[in-house]
Structure formats: C-alpha cells, structure tokens
Design brief:
Elements (H helix, E strand, L loop, with lengths): L1 H23 L4 H12 L13 H5 L4 H6 L1 H17 L3 H5 L3 H23 L5 H12 L3 H11 L4 H29 L3 H26 L5 H22 L3 H15 L3 H8 L4 H14 L4 H4 L1 H20 L1 H5 L19 H17 L1 H35 L17 H15 L15 H4 L7 E2 L4 H10 L4 E5 L5 E6 H4 L13 H4 L7 E2 L5 H10 L6 E5 L7 E6 H11 L1
Parallel strand pairs: 1-2, 4-5
Antiparallel strand pairs: 2-3, 5-6
C-alpha cells in the first residue's frame, strides 16, 4: 500500500504541473492529467518498471499500483455517474430538446458505425458490427463533466449535454446487453438481471439519501451522506451482482427527482472531490493502450478506422439532424459527445469474459472488439476533452475570464517572487511597486449564450422561457434582434396562475421595462455597484451595446461578478 501512496502522490503533483502547462496552451487540464498517466503507465516509463530501483518503481502507475488504487478509481466513477444522473430530472427533460437530440445521436452513431464496421468485417456475423455500434453510442461522462466544470460552462448546450450523456450511456448499455447473447453467446437474461439489480440498489440508496438530507443536514453531513451513499451503492452492487455503473447513475437520477437538496449535495461534495478526479484521470491515462494503435495489425486497423469514422460522423451529425440549433443548443453539440472511455471499456471487458468462457470463434470476435475499442478509446479520450472545450466555448457558454491566461497559476519564478514579497511585507520591508494590469470588464465575465424573449411571443411562451433557465430578467428583441426592453420575473409573478392571459401577446399583457443593464466596457466595480443599488432584487444584468440600434450581447450573473472581483479585483 505504501507504494500505491507514493505513486498516487507522484501522479497528483505531476498532474498539477501538467495541468498548468496545457492550460497555457488553451487545452483542458484533463488532457494534462491523462498525459501524466500515460507517461507513468505502461505506455511510458512504466514499461521499464522491472529494471528500475524500488523507489523509482513505486512512483510509477504500473499495473500493480493501478490495481492497488482501484478504490480511488471506483469512487471517482461513482461520483461522476451520480453527478450525470442528477441532471436527469424528469421535469427539466420534459421541456427540453434532449429527446430529439438523443434520438439523432443514437440513430446516427449506431447506423453509421454499424454500417462501416459491417463493411470492414465482411464475412463476420453482422451482430458483431451492431455491438460495436452500440458501444460507439456511449460518451465518457468523466472527461465531459470535468471539462464543463473546469470552464464553469452554463447554458442550454451544457444542460443538454449532461442529460445526453446519461441517456446515451443508458441506451448503449441496454443495446449491447441485448445483442451480446447473439454476438458472444453470453447469458442475456443474466446480463439484464445485473442491470436490474444495479438499478434497484441505486433507487434504494438514492431514496435513503433523500430521506437523510431532509434531517437538517449541514454542509459537513451532506459530504458524508454523498460519499457514504456512493461508496455503499458501489460496494452493494459488487456484493449482490449488480452493475455498479448503473447503480451510481440511477442513484443520482433518483436523488435529483426525490430530493430538493440534490444540487446542494453535489455542490458540497464538489468541495472535496477534485483530487479524486485528478487521480482518476491519471490512472485512466496509465491504462490507455496507445501501443494498440500500431500493433493491432491490418484487420484491426481497418475496423478501428471504420469505428472511429462512423462514431465521429454520427456524433457530429447530432446537432444538424435534431434541428435543435434554434433552441440555443447549437450545431456543434456532437463535438461535446466525442469523448469515450469508462462504459466502452466495461462493455469490451464483458465481451472478453464471454469470449473466454466459450472459446473458439467467439473468443476471436471478442478479442477483435476489445482491441478495436481500447485502441479507439485512446484516441477519443485525448481528442474528446479538446472537442468539448471547443463546443461550449463557441456556443458562448463560457465566460472570457475563464479562458484568460491570468486564471492559470503563476510560473515558478513568479511564485517565488510573490512569496518573497509577502515575507518582506510581513517583516515591514518596503516593496517594489507592482505593475498594473488591465481591469476586468463586462465583456470578460458575461455569458454569451442566452435565449431572448421575442416581441412575437405570447405570455405562455414567456413563462416557458423563464422556466428553462435560472435568469430573473430576459431581454426583449424584435425580429432583427434589436433590444426593445426587459421583462423580469417580478413582471410575470402575478400572472403565473392566470390561464386567460396565456395566449395574449407578451408585450401587450406584460410590457417591457428598461431593466438592469450595463455597457460592454463597464468595469467590475461599476457592475458590482449596480447590483448593490438593486438591493438583492435582481441577480442578473444584461450587457447592451451603446450604439444604435442597440443589441444584447451577453448576460452577467451577480455571483460571477463577485467571484471575478475576488480573483482579479
């Protein structure tokens, strides 16, 4: 165990440094974590582990150390899947574009991947190509979620991507389970029973956690409930023959639909879970089989090419096929679904287990599927985080301040100088004058993705707009996107239960006020002063251009302004 702790500590420190380096290159930090794992694992220095001294060997993420760190990996998977599950609130999904997006995603990815793999596997049973198609549907929840969290992305695309990951992983698991009996001779009934047991455990533990959260849970007890419940669910699934991935996902969904404190619980757990995520990605990097990209042979490379092309094309067609861009989701939503790892690897392992049991041609097919999936996962896990970042940034759901180099930690020399200056200040020694930096402005902290109220909307349309996002005021624009005014939650509060007004034009029934706005060049101090003058009645501010005709270019959350002021003010 001491060797495992040494390797864990080494991985965390190296991941910290690698994350800073890749952040300066405008790449997600998770890419750096994966690269560290690859460097310390069997794709890097780990291959020489038997020849190294014990101390150096203990610092690597070789196979023995990775096996010892399995509980850390499992807890991280449980946290990630439960977080994805909390996005599956039925009331929110009912009014969203997620079902149309999921249909487009699943059909396009399944048909294209299966079709191309069928051509590449000519002479093999068609169910093998179909199972590859269902594996391709799955998106890696870990890489997707951690990039969204790192960027503090918020908006229609982000919300739909979180729900989509949960939906497409569920469909991938069920579809693969149904076909695995035909492709690999596995016991389909037993596989579905495993899924069912996992779901029942998830529902039971999630309901228990919801009850405990009603017992005046403090922030500290929320963390205990969260980590304890997830650990118990994963362990019970292992002991009772349930699927732990399903258990964690269903636990999160149950909690989200049964408890008003689900989001608060996730926020509390998020205060302590980041080192677990970093360790998870380092371990995942160590387990990537980059050597399979060139060692698989001609047939494997041909099938892998078909799998990669089919899956990529299917994901990229999700937005255009669903016609959801008018809802603010965007044509690039498929880019945010490219990452692949956890579930795909689990499905490949399940196929391999069945292949070993039956032997012969079944084993050959299982080995082919596992090799193709593992090699492709290496590619998708490295490219996926970059694609997620590109998608949400270009959807306008990330503040510019989150992309600035200033958010990256100082270099070593600058950190040493800062430490020296603080020491001199403590000793009363005068300091050199620090250079001034450009003040943060509205355009740096605003979110560019929002859904406006159109002058053609009726009152019912306005109500649905307010229900779709957490803003307390929305801009009113005409058919040319020219700013006409603001409708706030206070303006519609008295009309919530008046059905007679539902079909009336919004501007006629409600009217539009000047609202709370600021200029694009407004400073942080000016923005905070405007919020203070509102005395807590407004938590969002519109950023409106000064020149005629005026246009709304973004929206500022009061919380974002305060966080930016603490960091850069």
């Amino acid at each position: 165990m001491s060797d495992a702790l040494v390797s864990l500590g080494t991985a965390l420190v190296m991941a910290l440094l690698a994350g800073r380096v890749v952040a300066r290159l405008h790449a997600p930090r998770v890419t750096g974590y994966l690269l560290v794992g690859m460097a310390l694992g069997h794709s890097g220095v780990g291959r020489f582990a038997p020849r190294l001294p014990h101390l150096l060997r203990s610092m690597l993420l070789d196979t023995p150390n990775v096996m010892r760190l399995a509980p850390v990996k499992e807890l991280a998977q449980a946290l990630i899947l439960a977080t994805i599950g909390t996005g599956l609130r039925v009331d929110r999904m009912r009014g969203s574009a997620v079902f149309r997006l999921a249909t487009a995603d699943v059909l396009a990815t399944l048909l294209l991947t299966s079709g191309l793999c069928l051509a590449a596997l000519w002479g093999q049973p068609p169910e093998l190509a179909a199972t590859l198609g269902f594996v391709a549907v799955a998106t890696a929840p870990a890489a997707t979620l951690i990039v969204l969290r790192e960027l503090e992305a918020e908006g229609p695309m982000t919300r739909n991507v979180v729900m989509l990951v949960g939906v497409n992983n569920t469909i991938s698991l069920l579809g693969f389970t149904a076909l695995s009996g035909f492709a690999f001779g596995s016991d389909t009934g037993q596989a579905f029973a495993r899924v069912g047991v996992g779901a029942l455990i998830g529902i039971s533990v999630g309901t228990t956690m919801a009850v405990l959260l009603l017992q005046r849970a403090t922030e500290q007890t929320m963390i205990l409930i969260g980590l304890g419940g997830l650990s118990a669910s994963w362990g019970m699934c292992g002991a009772l023959g349930g699927d732990p991935l399903v258990g964690a996902l269903v636990l999160g969904a149950t909690l989200a639909n049964a408890s008003p404190h689900a989001e608060a619980l996730i926020e509390r757990v998020a205060q302590v879970d980041y080192p677990i995520y970093v360790a998870f990605f380092a371990i995942a990097g160590a387990e990537l089989h980059i050597d399979l990209l060139w060692r698989g042979g001609g047939t494997v490379l041909f099938v892998m090419a078909a799998y990669v092309v089919g899956r990529s094309a299917g994901k990229l067609l999700t937005g255009p096929l669903s016609r959801s861009q008018t809802r603010g989701v965007g044509r690039r939503v498929g880019l945010a679904l490219l990452a692949q790892a956890g579930l795909a690897i689990s499905l490949a392992d399940a196929a391999m287990s069945a292949g070993r049991h039956h032997g012969g041609d079944v084993l050959v097919r299982a080995q082919l599927l596992q090799t193709v999936v593992l090699a492709s996962v290496t590619l998708f896990e490295l490219v996926g985080p970059l694609a997620v970042r590109y998608a949400v940034v270009h959807a306008g759901e990330v503040k510019i301040i989150n992309l600035l180099p200033d958010r990256v930690a100082e270099g070593l020399a600058a950190s040493m100088l800062d430490t020296l200056n603080r020491l001199r200040r403590s000793l009363g020694v005068s300091l050199h004058r620090q250079p001034k930096t450009r003040a943060m402005r509205a355009v740096d902290i605003m979110r560019r993705s929002f859904v406006p109220i159109r002058t053609s909307m009726n009152v019912d349309d306005v109500m649905h707009t307010f229900a779709s996002a957490p803003y307390d005021q929305y801009p009113v624009v005409d058919e040319h996107d020219v700013f006409q005014g603001v409708i706030s939650y206070a303006d519609i509060r008295s009309m919530l239960f008046d059905d007679e007004l539902a079909d009336k034009p919004a501007l006629e029934a409600i009217g539009a006020s000047s609202g709370v706005t600021c200029k694009p060049e407004a400073t942080l101090q000016e923005i905070i002063a405007i919020f203070e003058d509102c005395h807590g009645e407004v938590t969002h501010m519109l950023v409106v251009t000064e020149d005629e005709p005026r246009h709304v270019i973004g929206i500022i959350n009061q919380r974002d302004a305060l966080v930016a002021y603490r960091r850069h003010g």
